[in-house]
Amino acid sequence: MSTTNYTMKRSDLNRCWLSWMQHCACGYNYAKMMGSGVAHVMRIPLSKFYDTKEEQGREMEKHLTFFNTEPHIGSMIIGTVIAMEEDRSHGEPIEAEDITKIKSSLMGPFAGIGDSLIQGAFVPIFLSIGVSMGLQGNLLGPILFALVCCGVCLAGSHYLFFQGYKLGKEAITKIMSSGIFQQIMAGAGIVGCTVMGALAATTVTTGLVFEITAGESVINVQSTLLDAVFLGIIPLVIIALIMKAFNKGKKPTAVLFVTLIISFVLGALGIIG
Predict the structure, then answer these.
(1) For the whole prediction, is pTM greater than 0.70?
(2) 44, 17 in Cβ contact below 8 A?
C-alpha cells in the first residue's frame, strides 16, 4: 500500500467539517441514508493519505455503506473516523472493519442524543421564544430564532468534529462516560417545558362571551370567569388532553390533524380566538 504519511492540517479539517455540514444528506436514500454524504466528505482526507486512485477507491468502499445519525452531534463520529483513517495510513494496526464498526456502533446512540437535545429541546425552546416575540409584532423573533439556532448548532458541531479528530476513537468513550450530554439534556428539558408552558398559557384563548341585562355588559368566559377561578385553566386542559393522547400511543400527526380540525370548527363558531 502506497501512502503519503500526510497529517491533516486545520484548514483540511475545516474543509472536511464544512463539507459534512453541506453534504451530510447529499444523495440521501433509504438504502444507505447518509452513506453517500459520508463518502463525499471522506474523499478529501483519503486523497491526501493515498497516492493512487486505485488505493483511494479501495479505501472509499468502506464509507459507501449505511450510515444515519443526527448531523450536528454526529459530526464527532466523522472527526473520529478521519483520525482513524490517518492513523491507518501511517501504519497503525487499524483494519477497515474497525472503522466500519466505529461508525455503525455510534451512529444510533448519537442520533438519539442529537435528536433529543436539538430537535426535542433546543429548537422548541428558541422557537417558542421567537413565536412569542413574533406574536407581539417583534421582527426580532424569527431573526433571533434563526441566528441562535444556526449559530449554536454550527458552533457545537464544529467543536465536536475537532474533538473527535483530536481524541480519536477514545473521544466517544470519554465524553459519553462524563455524562455531559445527559446533564445538558436534563437542563434543556426543564427549560423547554417551562418555556412551552408559558407560551401556551399566554397564547391559547377563547372568544366565547355572553351578555347580561340586554347587552349592557359583556363577559368573556375565559378572562372574567375561568381565569378568576384557575388562571390558565383552558391551556392546561388542552395540553393535558394532548399529552394523554400521546401517552395512549397516538401518532403526533394524527393528534395535530384532530387539533387543527377542532380549532377550525370552534374558531368558525366564535368559541375560540
Answers:
(1) no
(2) no
